[in-house]
Design goal:
This protein is an alpha+beta fold. The chain folds into 3 domains: 6-73, Winged helix-like DNA-binding domain superfamily/Winged helix DNA-binding domain (Arc Repressor Mutant, subunit A), CATH 1.10.10; 97-160; 177-267, no CATH class. It has helices spanning 6-18, 27-35, 41-53, 72-86, 109-121, 139-148, 168-175, 178-192, 195-200, 205-220, 223-226, 241-267, and strands at 25-26, 57-62, 65-70, 97-102, 125-128, 131-135, 155-160. The protein has a 4-stranded antiparallel sheet, covered by helices on one side. The chain has a 3-stranded antiparallel sheet with strand order 1-3-2. Strand 2 and strand 3 form a beta hairpin. The two termini are 33 Å apart.
Length: 269
């Protein structure tokens, strides 16, 4: 899989550990924790600065310690993501589809780009120019997200069912790049297949759990968004998504608590 950017690891740290710490982590604790993941101090501080400029983090001192909080919007994004990342959501054919149709004036093309990016990141495919499609179980999430982005005046949502005139299993392969998604899952499996044995052979279980778990979650959390969660009946028989989800669930159960012990020792140290 592609190399993980420090800013992605920082967001994972905040999502895992800051929300239970009054939405705040000190700069020093973030630097130390990312140091355990072989990210040097300069890289951490540079990434924090970029996240601050983008409005993802805000600076705040607690006592004598400098630190950062997550913005309200980022907190909402993390809350929305928790279910999709940690739950195994997959539609059934009776869920149908949700369609997004939009019309955004040329003068507001930046909003058009934002909408397209948002829909892509949520796992939507396209059936025709300006018509985006996702399994029906995502209708609540897309409605919530578009409301948060103040896009309601540009967008119409429709419940839909495919009636005719083609084979639906073939049609979904034109709406989504399923081989590319499947390859992402295959790379995830290959990258983390030895994680359990690495942890069991470690002499420092908590630190090793942290070193495995934070990159694991960082790489995993984008995959449920690339994958629209199509019904299993519409997917190839050798689809890697189920195997990858099983691997993540097993490692999450195995490593999460020990990783947290290591992180809290540094955060409160």
């Amino acid at each position: 899989m592609s190399e993980i950017a420090p800013r992605q690891l920082i967001l994972t740290l905040y999502g895992l550990y800051a929300r239970d710490e009054h939405n705040w982590l000190s700069v020093n604790s973030v630097v130390k924790l990312l140091g355990d993941l072989d990210i040097d101090s300069a890289g951490v501080r540079s990434s924090i600065s970029r996240l601050k400029r983008r409005g993802v983090l805000g600076s705040m001192r607690v006592g004598q310690s400098a630190g950062y909080t997550l913005s309200g919007e980022t907190l909402e994004v993390l809350r929305e993501g928790d279910t999709r990342i940690f739950s195994r959501l997959r539609a059934v054919e009776d869920d149908g589809f949700v369609l997004v149709v939009y019309s955004i004036p040329e003068a507001e093309r930046e909003k058009r780009h934002q909408l397209r990016t948002t829909l892509t990141q949520m796992g939507f495919g396209t059936t025709a120019p300006g018509v985006w499609i996702a399994p029906g179980h995502l209708r609540g999430q897309v409605a919530s997200t578009l409301t948060r982005l103040d896009m309601e005046s540009y967008v119409d949502l429709f419940d839909a069912r495919y009636e005719a005139f083609g084979d639906l299993r073939q049609k979904v392969t034109t709406w989504w790049d399923l081989p590319a998604i499947d390859e992402e899952y295959a790379q995830f499996i290959d990258h983390h297949r030895d994680a359990r044995s690495r942890w069991k052979e470690s002499t420092d279980a908590a630190r090793t759990a942290f070193e495995i778990y934070v990159p694991l979650l960082t790489q995993w959390r984008r995959l449920p968004y690339l994958d629209p969660g199509l019904p299993s009946s519409l997917l190839p028989a050798d689809w890697n998504g189920g195997k990858a989800a099983n691997l993540f669930a097993d490692l999450d159960a195995l490593l999460r608590t020990s990783a947290r012990e290591h992180a809290m020792a540094i955060i409160h140290g």
